[in-house]
């Protein structure tokens, strides 16, 4: 075993405490890294890798960064997913005996960043934890920068994953030994997040409870409302234990755990969040062009973060929705009130994060000044909101306390323009502390004497170039150029020889220097301690300031929604008590805003759980089908957020979930084709939809062969319509015009199409949704608009004419409508069989033969292929031995043609 120097042995002992982190080890003015940490840091930070003697025979890898700029390097490493342990000197080097004692003072991880430069103003940074037992998941989320602590339990993995997607944690803590478990790997792959092992046994319920109760000073988890949620307690306790072990400082700003009541909110899965472009666009991941970007008229960072949560978690509680709508309506209708509120909010800083830094012990004088300035605005805001007759606005006003004592303390203690660093002094205002003022006076008088010394000595010696200076090595000195050395008095004592002159001191200068430096040393230390005392006093107001910050954030979101509503001519939706969705002249909020003056073609919508359950929408590409369907989903989302909506009138029955399957995408890394991704998303929808859900389906089945695609599409529509456990309101866009037969048989299926006007061999998209079926898809006309070469278009028209003239005539197999459909269909054997028999395709030779009406469906939901006497036909034996499940649609069509020819031959 290599023998190390005492300093390197200290490093090795410290590194053993944080084996999974890069250790920044303080040596003088640098943080040094050694061994593999140095190799990794040098590569990631692009700094020089060197070597150092360690007492052993070999030099060890080493690199370092200046301590004054270490924060930037630490954040760069954390952004890349690394953890960084900061090891500092914890005793005065001058008082140390032997090696200076060093300790890890903090471990910075992707989920525990507190530095403002690394945080997005209007986005939370969450750390999450998961505990799994017997199929139940306990989940906890914490934003260390604001103190928010949330918990929830879910009974299935998909619900847990949906929750994780909503909060997008930068780091997820799981119990020790479970990082490789199936659920943990799924979370890591889905979120592209950092997975961390929690402390040994810290997730055990008894230990987790003890951690929570000890931190918050309560005697039972019933104080948190978590008595019936043991796994939520385990997750929160493990997360808090992890924070305590990594941050190693006060976490008093953490709020008590708040349980996420799932049935209070609409659920949105990852696919729907992406497809509806709620937070960012699909194309370039930009906020501009997403719903959040349109709605964000907030003027505070706190409001911006809360608005994002509004968008991601619409309400499912009618009373709460109406309360928000009342407040938005008041601010929408009263311009002066809205503008006054906006102007006041614009003067408020990010109180949530500022007060968190106060409790954390990292707030500087400018932070305190920002807190005092913000709190001084609140009485005016309280007065304006309290003067309204709206319950929610009055409630907000009631949550704002009188912060006069805090404002007065900060104004008396902190200078008007304090420096960034507390170590530089100049933070405490004159008159706040008598002894501090005495030291300041002594320092000022000493420095003034030094300043006068230069003029006095020039006059006394006659040396015009004489200068008085100072540096940290030699202190104060008198500098004389070499040409004037002969005029230096005998009382000067040589201090340092330079190339072009000499430096001297005098007994009186040394005496003054001693007094000044002693006063400044005491001054800096006392001023820092005084500031810490003021900061601690502000921290005693922590809970009340956090409550006020929440009120300010909510006010900002409400005024933002009102501002957008007034600007965009939105109307208040009526929240219905039944399941209908009625929209008159509805508009897509984002598309309308981006048209820049061009009128948006509005459309009506009627959906319910009865005669208008499913809307089948046909028409060419680019005609507006996807825009229309998305706008319906977004109007529902806006209404349940508590926002006004882009329509002339809207009645919205509360929706529990919005599902979308839109567009084509693949997952090559995961080995999934475009069609497989489509089927995975579709399976999620059909397994989790309820009669209170809204489903948006766009071109289901287009990723496979025509017959397969039509079969799947038909089976899906039947499943949605006939399964009473699903029965969701559905908008279904398709190019399969054969599906229009459903409107003749199923009461709840309605037919719509996008209006297109033909002009010569071209088309004009009118963007209007009409209650009728489209007879063509206009694919070649759309290709022309896209700019395909003329020879390609001409040839395509020729081929289309040939196909239309000679194609086999086909018809949809119509199933008898039933009240019930046994079992879930999608992606199971019964649906595969259903889809495989969904079409009865006739041979080209029989295309001109008039079709006989199909018989009524049997209880198996499939029409009989044969008449009552068909059992004696010679073809029957061949059919009986046939394994239809092994046939492709094309094989089935060819075989049917052969059997038909045999049947006709026997008839002849």
Structural features, described:
The chain has 30 helices and 29 strands. A 7-stranded mixed sheet has the order 13-23-24-25-21-26-27, sandwiched between helices. Strands 3-4-2-1-5-6 form a 6-stranded mixed sheet, with helices on both faces. It is of the alpha/beta class. The longest helix has 33 residues, at 507-539. The protein has 6 domains: 6-108, DNA repair protein MutS, domain I (MutS, DNA mismatch repair protein, domain I, 3-Layer(aba) Sandwich); 121-260, Nucleotidyltransferase, domain 5 (2-Layer Sandwich); 296-403 and 541-568, MutS, DNA mismatch repair protein, Chain A, domain 3; 434-520, MutS, DNA mismatch repair protein, Chain A, domain 3 (Orthogonal Bundle); 574-775 and 807-812, 3-Layer(aba) Sandwich (Rossmann fold), CATH 3.40.50; 865-907, no CATH class. Helices cover 42% and strands 17% of the residues. The termini are far apart. The radius of gyration is 37 Å and the shape is elongated.
Please write out the topology:
Blueprint: H1 6-15, E1 22-27, E2 30-34, H2 35-45, E3 50-52, E4 60-66, H3 70-79, E5 84-89, E6 102-108, E7 127-133, E8 136-143, E9 148-154, H4 157-167, E10 171-174, H5 182-191, E11 194-197, H6 205-216, H7 230-247, E12 258-259, E13 267-268, H8 270-275, H9 291-295, H10 301-312, H11 318-333, H12 335-345, H13 351-360, H14 365-375, H15 378-386, H16 391-398, H17 404-413, H18 434-461, E14 467-471, E15 475-481, E16 493-497, E17 501-505, H19 507-539, H20 542-568, E18 574-576, E19 581-586, H21 589-594, E20 603-607, E21 614-618, H22 625-641, E22 649-653, E23 657-661, H23 674-688, E24 694-698, H24 706-722, E25 729-733, H25 742-745, E26 749-759, E27 762-770, H26 779-786, H27 790-806, E28 810-812, H28 829-836, E29 839-841, H29 876-880, H30 889-907
Parallel strand pairs: 1-5, 7-10, 9-12, 10-11, 13-23, 18-22, 21-25, 21-26, 23-24, 24-25
Antiparallel strand pairs: 1-2, 2-4, 3-4, 5-6, 7-8, 8-9, 14-15, 15-17, 16-17, 19-20, 19-22, 26-27, 28-29
Helix pairs in contact: 4-5, 6-7, 10-20, 11-20, 12-15, 12-20, 13-14, 13-20, 14-17, 15-16, 17-19, 18-19, 24-28
Family: Belongs to the DNA mismatch repair MutS family.
Function: This protein is involved in the repair of mismatches in DNA. It is possible that it carries out the mismatch recognition step. This protein has a weak ATPase activity.
Protein name: DNA mismatch repair protein MutS
């Amino acid at each position: 075993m290599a023998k190390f120097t005492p300093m390197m042995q200290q490093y090795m002992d410290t590194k053993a405490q944080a084996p999974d982190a890069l250790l920044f080890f303080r040596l003088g003015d640098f943080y040094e890294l050694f061994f593999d940490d140095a190799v990794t840091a040098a590569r990631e930070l692009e700094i020089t890798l060197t070597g150092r003697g360690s007492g052993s025979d070999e030099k060890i890898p080493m690199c370092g960064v200046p301590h004054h700029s270490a924060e930037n390097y630490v954040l760069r490493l954390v952004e890349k997913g690394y953890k960084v342990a900061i090891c500092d000197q914890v005793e005065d080097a001058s008082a140390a005996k032997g090696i200076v004692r060093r300790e890890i003072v903090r471990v910075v991880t992707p989920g525990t960043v507190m530095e403002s430069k690394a945080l997005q103003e209007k986005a939370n940074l969450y750390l999450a934890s998961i505990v799994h037992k017997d199929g139940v998941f306990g989940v906890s989320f914490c934003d260390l920068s604001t103190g928010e602590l949330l918990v929830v339990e879910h009974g299935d993995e998909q619900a847990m994953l949906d929750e994780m997607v909503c909060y997008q944690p930068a780091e997820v803590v799981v119990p020790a030994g479970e990082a490789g478990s199936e659920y943990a790997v799924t979370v890591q792959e889905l979120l592209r997040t950092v997975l961390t092992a929690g402390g040994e046994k810290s997730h055990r319920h008894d230990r987790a409870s003890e951690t929570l109760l000890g931190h918050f000073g309560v005697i039972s988890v019933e104080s948190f409302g978590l008595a019936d949620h043991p796994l939520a307690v385990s997750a929160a306790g493990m997360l808090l234990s992890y924070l305590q072990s990594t941050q190693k400082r006060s976490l008093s700003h953490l709020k008590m755990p708040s349980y996420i009541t799932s049935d209070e909110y609409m659920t949105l899965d990852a696919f729907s969040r992406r497809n509806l472009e709620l937070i960012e666009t699909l194309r370039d991941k930009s906020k501009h062009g997403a719903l959040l970007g349109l709605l964000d008229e907030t003027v505070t960072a706190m409001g911006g973060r809360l608005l994002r949560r509004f968008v991601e978690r619409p309400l499912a509680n009618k009373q709460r929705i109406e309360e928000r709508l009342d407040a938005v309506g008041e601010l929408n209708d009263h311009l002066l009130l809205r503008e006054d509120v906006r102007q006041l909010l614009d003067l408020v800083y990010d109180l949530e994060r500022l007060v968190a830094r106060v409790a954390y012990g990292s707030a500087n004088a400018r932070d305190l000044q920002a807190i005092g300035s913000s709190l001084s605005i609140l009485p005016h805001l309280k007065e304006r909101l309290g003067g309204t007759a709206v319950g929610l606005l009055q409630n907000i006003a009631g949550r704002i306390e009188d912060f006069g004592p805090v404002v007065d303390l900060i104004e008396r203690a902190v200078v008007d323009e304090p420096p960034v660093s507390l170590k530089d002094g100049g933070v405490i205002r004159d008159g706040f502390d008598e002894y501090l003022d005495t030291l300041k006076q002594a320092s000022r008088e000493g420095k003034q004497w030094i300043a006068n010394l230069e003029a006095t000595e020039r006059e006394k010696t006659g040396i015009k170039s004489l200068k008085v200076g100072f540096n940290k090595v030699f202190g104060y000195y008198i500098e004389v150029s070499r040409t004037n050395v002969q005029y230096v008095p005998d009382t000067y004592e040589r201090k340092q020889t330079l190339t072009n002159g000499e430096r001297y001191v005098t007994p009186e200068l040394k005496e003054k220097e001693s007094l000044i430096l002693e006063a400044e040393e005491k001054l800096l230390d006392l001023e820092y301690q005084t500031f810490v005392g003021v900061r601690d006093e502000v921290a005693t107001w922590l809970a009340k300031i956090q409550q006020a910050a929440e009120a300010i954030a909510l006010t900002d979101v409400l005024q933002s929604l009102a501002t957008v509503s007034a600007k965009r001519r939105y109307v208040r939706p009526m929240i219905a008590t039944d399941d209908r969705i009625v929209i008159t002249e509805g508009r897509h909020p984002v598309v309308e805003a981006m048209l820049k003056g061009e009128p948006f073609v509005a459309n009506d919508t009627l959906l319910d759980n009865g005669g208008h359950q499913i809307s089948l929408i046909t028409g060419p590409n680019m005609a507006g089908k996807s825009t229309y369907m998305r706008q319906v989903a977004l109007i529902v989302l806006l209404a349940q957020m508590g926002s006004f909506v882009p329509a002339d009138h809207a009645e919205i029955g509360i929706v529990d979930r919005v599902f979308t399957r839109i567009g084509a995408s693949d997952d090559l890394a995961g080995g999934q084709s475009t069609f497989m991704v489509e089927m995975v998303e579709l399976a999620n929808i059909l397994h989790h939809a309820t009669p209170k859900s809204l489903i948006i389906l766009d071109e289901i089945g287009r990723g496979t062969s025509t017959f397969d695609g039509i079969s799947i599409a038909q089976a899906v529509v039947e499943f949605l319509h006939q399964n009473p456990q699903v029965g969701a309101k559905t908008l279904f866009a398709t190019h399969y015009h054969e599906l229009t037969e459903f409107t003749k048989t199923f009461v709840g299926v309605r037919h719509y199409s996008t209006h297109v006007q033909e002009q010569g061999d071209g088309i004009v998209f009118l963007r209007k949704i009409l209650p009728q079926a489209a007879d063509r898809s206009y694919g070649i006309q759309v290709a022309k608009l896209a700019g395909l070469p003329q020879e390609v278009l001409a040839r395509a028209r020729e081929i289309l004419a040939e196909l239309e003239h000679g194609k086999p005539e086909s018809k949809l197999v119509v199933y008898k409508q039933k009240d019930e459909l046994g079992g879930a269909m999608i992606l199971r054997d019964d649906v595969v069989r259903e889809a495989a028999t969904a079409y009865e395709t006739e041979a080209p030779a029989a295309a001109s033969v008039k079709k006989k009406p199909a018989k009524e469906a049997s209880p198996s939901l499939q029409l009989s292929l044969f008449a009552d006497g068909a059992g004696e036909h010679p073809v029957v034996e061949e059919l009986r031995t046939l394994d239809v499940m092994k046939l492709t649609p094309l094989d089935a069509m060819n075989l049917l043609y052969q059997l038909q020819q045999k049947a006709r031959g026997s008839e002849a």
